[in-house]
Amino acid sequence: MELKKNPKADISRNSGLFFAAGLALVMFLTWRALEYKKYDDVIDYDISQSVDDLLDEEVPMTEQIKTPPPPPPPVAPEIIEVVEDEADVPETIIEDTESNEDEVVAEVEEIEVAEVEEDLDIPFSVIEDVPIFPGCEKEKSKGSNALRQCFQKMMYKHISKNFRYPEISQEMGVQGKVNVMFVIQKDGSIGGIRMRGPDKNLEAEARRIIDKLPKMTPGKQRGRAVRVPFSIPITFKLQ
């Protein structure tokens, strides 16, 4: 015997409707839970004070600030009329009581002020007329450059001729360069000698060499003799 299924007994027939209804109910309950608010208890305020009491309170008076009045408008200057004075006023002549026309005024002779020559130091490299080392007179006609070259040539020749290595410096193995500076004076003599080197003995020898320099023809600037500083190194080297 075959069993037949009753279509009315099918419980899955309205399952979609039930699901939708249940979902709507859950959403409604959720919304209500979120919207639920709890209010605090109402506090009773004291309203016994009436409006009349508030009106009876004294209101402090504020002082009214008085603004200063505006300054008066500037007064226009009066127009001054210039009236020509036609009356002749006699000129008063004041005589000088201190001077006498009969006095003879002595003439003052012109006083000549002697020009004081300043001691100028003109470097060797820029002086117009360089000092002339004895033996370089023949180079004068060739110009300043020829005289400068001859001067330096004769200086090195003089140093080589009078050079002598100090024995004590040789024994101690001292060597080096001594920078020498001197001034060719306005009369051609040598002065103002200064040395700087690694040893006092070498400095003393350099001074001895410079002291032996001959008297030169002084240098000139604008036709006037001037002092000319000159520097040269002297090298002491052991062989």
Task: Describe the 3D structure.
With 239 residues, the chain is of the alpha+beta class. The chain has a domain at 137-236: Fusion Protein Consisting Of Minor Coat Protein, Glycine Rich Linker, Tola, And A His Tag, Chain: A, Domain 2 (2-Layer Sandwich). Helices cover 27% and strands 12% of the residues. The protein has helices spanning 15-35, 51-56, 144-162, 167-172, 200-211, and strands spanning 176-184, 190-196, 220-221, 224-225, 228-236. Strand 1 and strand 2 (190-196) form a beta hairpin. The termini are far apart.
Helix content: 25-40%
What would you say the CATH architecture of the domain at 137-236 is? 2-Layer Sandwich
- Which ranges are low-confidence, i.e. pLDDT below 50, for 5 or more consecutive residues? 47-51
| Strand and helix order | HHHHEEHEEE
Mean pLDDT: 78
Number of helices: 5
The name of the CATH topology of the domain at 137-236 is Fusion Protein Consisting Of Minor Coat Protein, Glycine Rich Linker, Tola, And A His Tag, Chain: A, Domain 2
Shape annotation:
elongated
Q: How big a fraction of the residues is strand?
A: 5-15%
Distance between the termini: 144 Å
Subunit organisation of the chains: single chain
Quantity of strands, as a count:
5
Radius of gyration: 61 Å
Quickly name the level 1 CATH class of the domain at 137-236: Alpha Beta
Largest sheet: 3 strands, antiparallel
Strand adjacency order, main sheet: 2-1-5
Class of secondary structure makeup = alpha+beta
